[in-house]
């Protein structure tokens, strides 16, 4: 298994959006768990940092939130992706894919 | 779009940060609890699970800080935080905060007031297109006095400067409108050259401008009306153009009506071509004021050079003074009126009795207001007209304001001018202002207030920052800070306190003596019975009453007709108002040998029989002027001041008083026999009483008469009757400036009232600021010395000792300032000279009042710091940092 690495700058928002898009409404803990689960230990995520990111996404109108009750009966805030968030996710995913492919090609040609 | 949304959200976040933080903490707690539960479920001990959860979550404080930054605008947040701290600090010392903000408020208020006045006079642009091009030409003699150029000189200038500027000339005059079944009314008017309005770029609202044809000799007389006249006298009649009205008793065709607010050159409401001025003026040469518009590209200096060169070449019979003894200046119009050069605006040199200038209106409101002020005035007049009952009720209260408003309401439609008069020769130096000068707030004044307010706040907040920075520096590098820093600051504070108290006491002294002088004048005027006493003016134009006989015949008919009206209890004619308006004479009793110019001065007033009865003043000795005395009778009544000052209390009845006219040194000396002694009434605004010689009124000298009357209680009816009488005798003649006699007295005290009110206001502000300053210095000394005071207390010092040691220095500086200020007050009050009536700064009562007021202020300012000092508990003080 690869050693833990920091979350690349600017990708946390994308990961949160993708998680909410795929999983439906989730609380902060659920989102953090899901990201860690997908990363399978390859990512060193300070779970708390998810909250400023969620606030940022809410302020931009890409995520909405409402209070509810969690599976173990705790009061929790549930976050859901908005249509604007979906559009943003699509756009960012495309940019990401393009960047990755350019970088990969570059790295391939160098090797 | 997203950026905007983000900004709005962050701004909203500024106000919801507390709730957001609470919710975040709740969310984080739930998060940690869930994570811990899961870790326990996976087999960890609860304690390890809690630790692991915390590790996985990260530093909660840091998360909260990140969240807070994301929530709002960090910079604004910091400002809000500072404001909160400042507010808490202010609330902790409410007295001091109130004092400081009060001082700041007063400072801002005074600065704004001064700016508003300066702005109104000099900075507000003239209400014309390209106002910077409008200039005024003024002629000065070698002593800096204003001379007025003749029309001929104006023409010399106009021809010389052609192509570089357009010049126009005007001459202010009172103009009487009559005819059309409406009683005659007198207005401020101007004779102007036909190009004047065009030069300004203003066109009549109705009809046409003057044409050069209108100026030619023999042209049909024409007139242009001001908007106010058109509205009030002609009911806003749109068919007025082409109609014939009577101006100064002559028929003239109305050719135009000017737009609202336009009253060029000064305060004019009626205009006629300059060519008409010669007909109405007995002067051999018409003197004018010259205004002009510089062409684009012509500088003031260039215009000045052209005009000066043309003046050099002007023939001597055109020049206003011998060659080399006069000069002409070209300045922007507002500079000319309000600049550094002394000068008399045209309004102050109207002909004849109109030398008496200014107005009751001017006292109440800024003159020449064409905006809201004028509207208020009109409304007031209209209200008074339409609600005579209410107005009467108001009058019943004897309120001077109510009386005046009723007066306006009545006076205007009945054909009186609205001006009350005041001698242009008065020593006040106050003059009417051009109609465009008004002191109101507009965006520039608000901008000024904003800028100085911000500046003051920045300065005030900069000082503590520098102080804090300084003390930090000191803490780190004690050797770098000069040890005298604190003491020099303290010295500056003490000096400020001393200066403040000196200025305050000077102002307080000056205000006190002036207020007392104003009161002395008022009580001196009270010898006259003001109830139901009214005054009005009649000017008999020389054109229609050319000889003394004509004038005397008219006045005889007027006297008889007034006597026949029952509403008028008493009436009389005089050459001057009581209280103001004098004709100076050199006087001598018996056959003194000295030259007349060496004789003492006295006022001469021409009176009719019943003058003193009408004023409600019985003679002290001797007899009145009676109807049996011819106007040429060589008798005189002198007043009590004459007896004490000139006769040195000797018997005067039956003696001869000789009078010499100081303006005509060679004229024969008149000899009059004294037949009576009257109580003293002053005849000048600057003294409580002066020697006066009353003699039978003679219309020989001029056609200007003051009518004094006392009604039987029905003031309205009596005034209407008086107007009817005048109108019946001559429909073109207005009875104008109808005002209550009490208003004349009030008017004659105008200078004292205004100057003393302003000084008193400034003194009050200064006193308040001095109190604040003293309070601040004293509080500061107490807070600085808390530990020392505690130690002294613990060592057994008495309260008095401690108070003296702590507050002594501040009091000493205040006392030093007060002593200096007292000297200043003595100096300034001796400089006031004739303004002071019956009082001196060295009067014990004045000194007691000033020192008492100052002492009370000091006690009040020191009370709180003193209380704090005496309440300091030694145990607590020693713990004080």
List the helices and strands and how they pair.
The complex is a heterodimer of chains A (111) and B (881).
Chain A: E1 5-6, H1 11-23, E2 26-27, H2 28-39, E3 43-44, H3 50-59, E4 63-69, E5 75-81, H4 83-110
Parallel strand pairs in A: 1-3
Antiparallel strand pairs in A: 2-5, 4-5
Helix pairs in contact in A: 1-2, 1-4
Chain B: H1 2-13, H2 17-41, H3 46-57, H4 60-71, H5 74-92, H6 94-123, E1 134-141, E2 146-147, H7 151-161, E3 165-179, E4 182-192, H8 196-200, E5 206-207, H9 212-215, E6 222-225, H10 227-232, E7 244-247, E8 250-257, E9 270-273, H11 277-280, E10 289-294, H12 300-313, E11 326-332, H13 333-338, E12 356-357, H14 360-364, H15 372-386, H16 388-396, H17 400-411, E13 422-423, H18 443-476, H19 485-525, E14 533-539, H20 548-563, E15 568-574, E16 583-589, E17 601-607, H21 611-614, E18 621-622, E19 635-639, H22 640-646, E20 656-660, E21 670-678, E22 692-696, E23 704-711, H23 715-729, E24 736-740, H24 741-748, H25 750-784, H26 786-794, H27 799-832, H28 844-871, H29 874-879
Parallel strand pairs in B: 4-9, 6-8, 17-22, 19-21
Antiparallel strand pairs in B: 1-2, 1-10, 1-11, 3-4, 3-7, 3-10, 5-8, 6-9, 7-8, 12-13, 14-23, 14-24, 15-23, 16-17, 16-20, 18-21, 19-22, 20-21
Helix pairs in contact in B: 2-3, 2-4, 6-18, 6-25, 7-12, 15-17, 16-17, 19-25, 19-27, 19-28, 20-23, 25-27, 25-28, 27-28
